[in-house]
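can u pls check wat happens w/ 5-bromo-uridine-5'-monophosphate
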Amino acid sequence: MPSAHLQTYAQRAEKHANPAAKALLETIERKSSNLCVSVDVTKKADFLRIIDIVGPYVCLVKTHVDIIEDFDSSLIDRLKELSAKHDFLIFEDRKFADIGNTVALQYSSGVHKIASWSHITNAHPVPGPGIVTGLASVGTPLGRGLLLLAEMSTKGNLATGTYTADAVRMARAHRDFVIGFIAMHRMDGIGAQAGEAVEDEDFLILTPGVGLDVKGDSMGQQYRTPREVVLESGCDVIIVGRGIYGKGSDAEVREQAERYRREGWVAYEGRVSPRS
Ligand code: 5BU
C-alpha cells in the first residue's frame, strides 16, 4: 500500500474511522477542493458574507470565533446553514493549550460552545497528553476530530525537532480522536520507535502560511505556494486567509477562492498521478 499521501482522498476516506476526518476527505473529493479559507474578520456581517462567497470553492471554513465583536448564538445558526448550503465543514482554530479539565470546559461551554458546532479543532501539545484526553472527553461522543500543532508557519517558532516528534507520538497514542496535524510537511513515521508499525497511519496535514502573491507579512508569517505545500511537501489541505478575503470586492474574493482551489487541486493531481 503506498503511503497515504499518494492515495486519493476518496481511497483515504474509505479507511478513516473518525467521522470528522472521513467527512472532510469525502467533501474534498466531492468538491474537488482541498482549500480551507480562514475568515479572520471581526464583524458578523462580513464573516457571513465572505463565507457565502467562498463556500462553493472550499472543503473547510476555518474560524477564530473569539475575534468577532458582535458575536451571538445566531451567528452559529447562520454558519451551520451556510455549511449545509455550500457543503463544507467547520474548523475553529482555537489552539487549546491548558490542562485537560480546563480545555474540556473551554471546548464545551462558555459563550462559544465550540464542540457543538465545530467539526474540527486544534490544540498545542505543550501541556502533554492530558490535553488530548480532556478534549476527547467532549469531542469523541460528538464525532469531532482534533489536530495537534506539530509545526507552525511563522518565522522563529519553537515547534521543531523533538517537539514535533513528540507531538506525532502523542497523536499516535490517540488515533481515534487526533486526525492529524497543523504542519508544514508530512509527518509519516516521525518519532516512531524501532519496529513500531506506522506504515498504515493516515494523519491529515492541514497547512497555513499559503499565498501566491506575497512571501510573508510584517509579523513573522511566511507563505508558500499551493504547489510547494501539496506537491512538494505532501500536505493535504491548504489554509488561506488574507490571500482570499483580503482582496476587496466580492468578485475579487470569489476569483481568488477559485484560483486557490484550482492551484491546490492541480498540485494534488500532480501528486497522486504524476506525469512521467
Ligand atoms: P493568513 O491571512 O493566510 O496569513 O492567515 C493564516 C491563518 O492561519 C490565521 O488564521 C492564523 O491564525 C492561522 N495559522 C497560521 O497562520 N500559522 C500557524 O502556524 C497556525 C495557524 Br497553527
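Residues 38, 40, 64, 93, 149, 152-154, 182, 208-209, 221, 239-243 surround 5-bromo-uridine-5'-monophosphate (CB under 6 Å).
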